[in-house]
Amino acid sequence: MSAPFFPQIPTIPFAGPDSRDPLAFRYYDADRMVMGKRMADHLRIAICYWHSFCYGGADPFGQQTIHWPWMAGHSIEMADMKLDAAFEAFEKLGAPFFCFHDVDAVPAGNSAREFAENLNHIAERMAAGIERTGCRLLWGTANLFSHPRYMAGAATNPDPEVFAWAAFQVRNMLDVTHRLGGENYVLWGGREGYETLLNTDLKRESDQLGRFLSLVVEHKQKIGFKGTLLIEPKPCEPTKHQYDRDAATVHAFLQRHGLEGEIKLNLEVNHATLAGHDFEHEVAYAIANGLLGSFDANRGDPRLGWDTDQFPNDHRDMAMVLYRVLQAGGLTTGGFNFDAHIRRQSIDAADLFHGHIGGMDTLARGLLAAEAMIADGQLAKAVDDRYAGWQCGVGANVLDRNESLESLADKVAQGSVDPQPRSGRQEALENLVNRFL
Ligand code: XUL
Ligand code: CO
Fold this sequence. Notes:
Blueprint: E1 33-34, E2 37-38, H1 39-43, E3 45-48, H2 49-54, H3 76-93, E4 97-101, H4 102-105, H5 112-133, E5 136-141, H6 160-179, E6 184-187, E7 193-194, H7 202-223, E8 228-231, E9 241-242, H8 247-256, E10 263-268, H9 269-274, H10 279-288, E11 292-297, H11 315-327, E12 336-338, H12 349-376, H13 378-386, H14 393-399, H15 405-413, H16 426-434
Parallel strand pairs: 3-4, 3-12, 4-5, 5-6, 6-8, 8-10, 10-11, 11-12
Antiparallel strand pairs: 1-2, 7-9
The chain binds D-xylulose and cobalt (II) ion.
């Protein structure tokens, strides 16, 4: 079978909020200007290869339900067909970026050498696809979690030969990402964690992971890759505990291993939920600590405690995140990758497009709400007003290091300091935000 793989799907047009056409965007309008920049350039949307073109609907209780033609075998011919289908979908959706793992794009073959050859082959075809369609690589990554060799971790494996295999895959994928002009390189520690502490040396595993990441940084510098290295936090699943638990944990890890400034964060919505955080919290933490990198946009199910990787469909969830991103000056090399897949029962080709159209519209609508909140300015002003005391007097003196514990204590003892309670105005601010949603 050759292209087109989705003959019944047109190039998805922007038709406006009143449109009833299920194969049209209602909010995602790539060229619409938002705060002086195209909507597409704010959101930098990416389609992921693994969920969109490799997922067959299998779950822990049942086998494959979705049968794309390129799933008929593990040959390089099937990999080529998958690539053609992927670029057709990228073009029809007007996505400016895509993302992939090494094993999403090619079979690993029967030897390390075959794996590397397959990857080089597909990289050449990808370069041609990028050239032809203008859909670029947001990030590349290596899958260090599916193969049985990684059952006890990759960099944190008790066996250094597995560590070497992880180095082989990351070296190859970092090189390919560089060659394809990728904007970032992502490291998700799929099995960098433990199942039981009974057989685990925490300190040793942390040091191994620190060493591995230092090697990645060194290689990035050696080849002159100018993109951003990103770690993707996740608290658990597949392991009971993963070392890259959340943004703050990764931050401390980077500081401990001298990697601060070298690696930023790829934050995923459902991973934040699993860590017991709002996604907005993770984003606020990353921005506050200079770690904002990129996003994996998806959602979980509020009743299910696992990583369901559903497409985002509520713009209110995204609006506050986009508000913070706009306030921070916007994304640089990062973007919004849909780390999301259609459901097991979504077996029609059109379902893949409905998922992406809904996700892109959700982000676009969130962006427009965020733009309105920024233009209104009341939310930012309320926060500024709340901390205004730190701009002058005692507050400014404390920050300028002109006060000691003693000088402050003396002021209180002399009665020259007399704090007055003030409302936090939470309900008023919640109502204010709702006006824009
Ligand atoms: C797993 C996950 C991965 C990473 C890339 O939960 O999010 O797909 O995004 O390895
Ligand atoms: Co992800």
